[in-house]
Amino acid sequence: MPIHRSVRRAAGLAVALLTAGVLAPGVAHAAPPDNDDFDTATVVGSLPFTAAQDTTAATKAADDPATDCAGNVVRGSVWFRYTATETGNLRVTGNGSEPTMPVTVYTGGRGNLQRAQPTGGDCLRYSAMWATLRVTAGTTYHLMVNGGGALKLDLRSVASPANDNFADAHRVTSLPFIGDKPDLQAATVEPGEPFAPGCTASEHAGSVWYSYTPTRTEYVLTEMMSQRDSGPSLSVHEGTSLADLRPISCGDTWDSDRVVQMIAGKTYYLQFRDYPEWPDYRAEPMMSVAPELQTSLPEYGSQSTYDPVHFDLLVRNDYPSARAVHEWDFGDGTTLPPTELRVQSHRYTKDGTYTVTIRSRTPEGRTATTSTTIEVSTHNVEVTKLVVPATARAGETHPINAAVKSHHGAERVVILLHRVYPGGSEAPAGERWIELPAQPAMSTFIQFHYRFTEEDVRLGTLGFTVRAQLTPFLPDARPLNNWKTAATTVS
């Protein structure tokens, strides 16, 4: 005949007391709690039920579970027993002084306990937390607390949300719509309930349902408001019953914004699920008409055929979960296939006016088109020659000849002559304003006259630089070609 745990514990306690009396006379030892043993569990008669006790002196019986639902080794246990009077939801709230005092729920009998899974498949593993258990009328549930400190336990019945079942889906009649932060831990999982691939919420998590039948075809944005970074999910389904539902969209907390095209007269079902461990962290689902996709390009100044134009497309109201793709048409016969890239570079080979067009499309079908005009007008004035005297004396005046040409259209330029001193500093020595014809093969010659001085003699060698500068000033596409240098020995 098996010896009950209470008998074993009493014997062990007598030996311990005797030993303690010999080794440490006068030392008092706390007695284990009354519900220390499975057979002496505190009976929960009616709900709501609350209990507060010190579990520090709790002991562990040989047939106690080795670990609790959080995987912690059971140090000592206290037990509670509840027999459900009706099928429903049992809300278990624990508040322990120690962070590792999980509440684990079992069914069955001593030596043959089976774990009962709260909604979401988790356990009450930390202090000041709660879990919800689906209970069946007539079934007895055993609650084990892994002891070690002060415990506060609360048990109460909670009703499932009104839209817990698919058949009772909350009917959304107009947009925008904001849900009422449903208690998803009191929600159930119906037989045959779909689970949208890609959603992070566990298939064990209960869900609530919403239905929406648009009166016109529109793009609908579904999203969630949540205080947590992960957990809840919101999926959209097509179909008419649980058996034939097909998920067409699923968003999680970190990327919940999803857009779905909904056809007029067709009913869509939204499934909202979560298994929050903290009662204050309830999320709420939201639906609204999706904003239009918007794209734009900045204005660009005059461009040249020598340098690529860098385009940066600004996109609004697409979402990270489903980026828009863009078709690029640069207006000169060059196009790019659809791509998510928003930054492109393109070099035009001829001067002219070009219309750049970008056609954008999101996966659900929203579109946007933007365009801009690019003026390509290349300006490249080149100094082709600079001739200075090889030698000169102080007081002599010598001609300095230069030749320039325009590689493209007619240009108005100023030709600047500078003296160059050792070390690289310069000083103006003359300027000429000229009109260059649109004849790239022909150079225009310019002559300056320079009188050499005693200061030039002291330098020994005097450098000259001729630069051609467009007027009005325009960025020169090839600045290295618009100047030349030469030097004269002065004695």
Compose a concise summary of this entry.
The protein has 491 residues and is mainly beta. Helix content is 5%, strand content 44%.
Explain this structure.
This protein has 491 residues and is mainly beta. The protein is built from 2 helices and 34 strands. A 5-stranded mixed beta sheet has the order 1-3-8-5-6, with no helix packed on it. It has a 5-stranded mixed beta sheet with strand order 10-12-17-14-15, with no helix packed on it. The chain has a 5-stranded mixed beta sheet with strand order 28-34-33-30-31. Strand 14 and strand 15 form a beta hairpin. The N and C termini lie far apart (130 Å).
Largest sheet: 5 strands, mixed
Radius of gyration: 43 Å
Name the shape in a single word.
elongated
What is the strand tally? 34
From the 3D structure, determine the CATH topology of the largest domain: Jelly Rolls
* Secondary structure: helix percent: under 10%
Outline the secondary-structure elements:
Elements: H1 5-23, E1 42-44, E2 49-54, E3 77-83, E4 88-96, E5 103-109, E6 112-115, E7 129-135, E8 140-146, E9 150-158, E10 170-172, E11 177-178, E12 207-212, E13 218-225, E14 233-238, E15 246-252, E16 258-262, E17 268-273, E18 284-289, E19 294-296, E20 309-312, E21 314-316, E22 325-329, E23 335-339, E24 343-346, E25 352-361, E26 367-376, E27 381-387, E28 391-392, E29 397-406, E30 411-420, E31 426-436, E32 444-451, H2 454-459, E33 461-470, E34 483-490
Parallel strand pairs: 1-3, 10-12, 28-34
Antiparallel strand pairs: 2-9, 3-8, 4-7, 4-9, 5-6, 5-8, 11-18, 12-17, 13-16, 13-18, 14-15, 14-17, 19-21, 20-24, 22-23, 22-25, 25-26, 27-29, 29-32, 30-31, 30-33, 33-34
